[in-house]
Structure formats: C-alpha cells, structure tokens
Specification:
The chain is α+β, with helices and mostly antiparallel strands and 159 residues long. The protein has a single domain, classed as Hotdog Thioesterase (Thiol Ester Dehydrase, Chain A, Roll). It is 21% helix and 31% strand. The chain contains three helices and seven strands; from the N terminus they run βααββββββα. The strands form two sheets. A five-stranded antiparallel sheet has the order 1-4-5-6-3, with helices on one face. A two-stranded antiparallel ribbon has the order 2-7. Strand 5 and strand 6 form a beta hairpin. The longest helix has 16 residues. The N and C termini lie far apart (37 Å).
C-alpha cells in the first residue's frame, strides 16, 4: 500500500494546511511483547498531534468548553506502513485541512527519523452544542475566528 499525498481534497482558493509537529519517543507501555507499537496506540499519537495543532490555532478542548462546544470524532482512518519500535524516536505531524463546513479535517503522519512514514491517517470531527448535543449546521464563531486568522496568514508566518 502506498501513502496518499493527502486524504482530503482542497480547492484552489483554500489556504494551505495549518501544520504542527512534535518529537516523540516510543514508551515501554506502548509496545506489545514483540517490542513494536500496539496498533491501538496510534489514535492516541494522532490525539497528541491534534492537541499541539489545536493550541496553535485556538481550537483546543479548553477553547471548545469555553465556547459551549464539543467536537467529537465522527471518522477515523489509519494506514500502517512500517512499525514503530520500543525507544524509537519519531515525529507526529498533524495538518488541519481547510473545509467550509462545521467540521475539522485533520491529516496525520508519524515520521521515522530516517524520513519514512510509519503511519498516516485522518480524523473528522464535527462541532456540536455542548448542552443539547445537536450538530452545529453552521460553523461556530470559534471556527470562524480560526479561519480568519488562517486566511490572514497568521499560522504560516516565520517565528
């Protein structure tokens, strides 16, 4: 199986993805008796990437709570290419892909130190009202603010 370049289609007018990366090492508690990462651990790595990305663009779980929103995962997909092993260092890369709907499309890559992709995948999260649990059919203000900053290029400026 070959890795797709992207999972979500982008329009020509869409700003480029917002990307966050963090370095990580495989812990003993994450591997099976063969010393490779248990397949069920990969969504937690994706979640770590999401949390880093969310802090960058104002879409953290704290931001959701303060805005009276939730953003449960409605879809998860994982492609496994190469195993990660005990004590191996790797990079978690999370990319928020532009979408006009009231949802978050996030692509993930777990990249080995030699530059090869161990695993890739995506999540789709939909916004819901915290009180009623109803899906937000219109994008909430919190997402609108993120989009404004994104279109202004704030997430792509050199630091």
């Amino acid at each position: 199986m070959r890795k797709k370049k992207t999972y979500f289609k982008c329009t020509e007018k869409a700003p480029r993805p917002v990307v966050a990366e963090l370095k990580r090492r495989v812990h003993f508690s994450e591997v099976d008796p063969l010393g490779i990462v248990w397949h069920g651990r990969y969504p937690a790595y994706f979640e770590e990437g999401y949390e880093e990305l969310a802090r960058l663009c104002g879409l953290s779980y704290r931001d959701f709570y303060e805005a009276g929103l939730r953003a449960p995962v409605a879809g998860l997909h994982i492609d496994y290419f190469k195993p990660l092993r005990l004590a191996e260092e790797f990079t978690i890369r999370a990319a928020l892909i532009w979408d006009e709907a009231s949802r978050l499309n996030i692509e993930y890559s777990l990249i080995k130190d030699d530059g090869t992709v161990a695993t890739s995948g995506y999540t789709v999260q939909v916004f819901t009202d915290a009180e009623s649990g109803e899906v937000c059919l219109v994008s909430p203000g919190l997402l609108g603010k993120c989009r404004e900053r994104w279109q202004a290029g704030e997430f792509h400026r050199k630091k």
